[in-house]
Structure formats: structure tokens, C-alpha cells
Amino acid sequence: MMKNTFEHFRKIQKKTKPKRKLPKNKSSGKWLRRGIWLTIFLVGFAGLSGYFKSVRALKEIESTKASNVNAQVVSVTTDRPMEIFAENFIKAYFHRPLLMEQESYTDGMKKYFANGFPLEDISNVGARELISSSLFDVEKKKNYSVLIYQVAYNNITNQMATRIKQVPVKQGKKIVQKKITEKYTKEVKSKVTCLVHVPVQSVKGAYSVVDAVYYTTIPNLATSNGDVVTDDSANQDLDAVSTKQQGKVESFLQNFFENYASGTKEDMAFMMKNPETLDGMKQYKEIVSMRAYNQKQGVLVKVKVSFTDKQSSGTDVENFTLDLSKKEGQYFVSKLTHTLGGN
């Protein structure tokens, strides 16, 4: 009996304890994996999107640069070469010395004119020489352009004149000087100033004169009908600065314009946002008049300043409008214009 009980107890001890397993949450693991893959996808997509945007931006920049270069090339190839051609034509056209042969003139000019254009007969005209020329205007026609030059030239002619001349004459045994009148050919120059119109056509990057050159008088470009620019600050409801502040502003301006006249741009960089200077060309003399007004951001100043030429005692008065702000406790010119109008 005891033996059976003991054997039964040993069998109970040998029984393997059941393993405890945690229940698997299949649903949460599945969503975790999906979340990780979604994050990877979004990061990758953002990276690719940024890459393609940067590539597109670079292409746009290069395209803009190319457009600017092309625009410059077009401007140069369509305008300046034509002007150079016309300038050379003007020089050749007015180069006609005395006793110049028709053949020589024709050979020099025919390269400028279109084929079949009848060249000028110079057999019965006087000589001429160019003094100066400058481009005045350009008129665009349907198939060509008319380049208009302001020209000064001399007409040269030979005229008979007389003069008194002393010649040695023998009187007996002596040689004496005797005055005689002699005729000679005198070169006479008559200056002409006018506009010369040159019709020029462009053909595959080359140029030719396609119609007769013609002359006109220089128009009067001056008029007294313009509106004088004046100080319009009074119309902007701005209040004048106090007397104390007026003195501080004037003191700053005296120092500023002394440096403006004699200093360099590097010097002026400490006093103004966009440095400019006369670089010693003139010397500051005085402030002729000044008005200073309070505005939202600093002080608005309208000032007339007198400068003196270093090589002479001549003076000139210039107008300025300045926007002053404070920088490190000192006045600083944030904007400068060469006028009393506007701000």
C-alpha cells in the first residue's frame, strides 16, 4: 500500500508543468508594420518631390540666363552693328578732298550702297570734310531703318584772292624791295551743321544704303513749357522737426556733404545705404537752404547744397531729398535723390 502511494507521488512530480503562452495580438502588429511602411513611403516621396523641384528650379534659372543672353545678343546684333556701319558710311561719304577723282570716290562708296544704286557725280561739286557726327535718332520703316546723324562738316572751295608781296627789284646799282599785288588760289572752308538721314537695310547680318541720303535742319529741342520741380512736402501734411532737432540734422548734413564731395564710396558706406560720391571732383561750400520734416520712419530732408569747382572759383547749387533714419544712435541716409520733388 505504501509502495503504491510512493509511486503515485513520483509520477505526479514527473508530470511536466504546462507552458504558459501570451496571447498574440495579431491585429496590432499588422497595423504597426503598415504604419512603418507608410512612413518610409512618405519620407521617400517627399525626398523625390524635393529633388524634382530643385531640378526644375535649376532648369528655370538656366532658361532665364539663356533668355537674357539671347536678348543681349539680339540687341547687339540688330542695333549696334548697324550703327557702326552707318558711322563708317558717314565718314566715307563726307571724305571728299579737293581734286578727288570720280573713280576714287566711286570705289570708296560703292561697297556701302545696294546693287544698282546710282552714285553721286562729284565732277561739278566742291570738296568737303567731316568735323564731327553723333547718332541723333532712328526711324523704323517697313523694310529698313533710317539712321539720323547730327553732323558738322566743312564745304571746301578754291577761290581767287589777291595779296601784297615784296619782291627784290634792281634800281641802278642797288637792290630794293618793291610791293606788288599777286593773285593766288585760296582754300575756303564753310562750316555746315545739320541732320543727315541714312536709309539702311539689313540683309542676313550685313547692311547697305538703299535710298538717297537726305539732309534736314536740326530742330529746336528746347521748350519753356515744362513744370518746375518744387518741394511738395507742404502738401503731404508733414510736421517740421523741432528747432533742437533741426540743428542736429543740419550738423549731420554738413559732415555728410563734406564727405560726399571729397570721400570715396567706401567712406560713404558708413553714412548711407547706397553709397555715392563726387570723389574729389568738387568741394563742399555750404548748405543754401534746408527743410526737415518728421515722418513715420525718421526724418525727411529737402536741401539745397552749394559746391565749388577745385580748378576754379565757380560754384553750382544742387538739390537733394534725403530720408534719414537712426543707426547706432547716429543719423543714416537710407535714401538720397537729386531733386526736391517727391520723397
Indicate the CATH architecture of one domain: Roll
Oligomeric state of the chains present here: single chain
| Coarse morphology | flat
Q: Class of one domain in CATH?
A: Alpha Beta
Quote the distance from N terminus to C terminus. Answer: 123 Å
Low-confidence stretches: 64-78
For the biggest sheet, the summary is: 5 strands, antiparallel
Tell me the structural class. Answer: alpha+beta
Roughly what fraction of the amino acids lie in strands? 35-45%
CATH fold-level assignment of one domain? Nuclear Transport Factor 2, Chain: A
Task: Give the helix tally.
Answer: 6
Report the radius of gyration as a whole number of Å.
45 Å
Helix/strand order: HHHHEEEEEEHHEEEE
Helix share, percent: 25-40%
Rounded mean pLDDT score = 80
User: How many E-type strands?
Assistant: 10
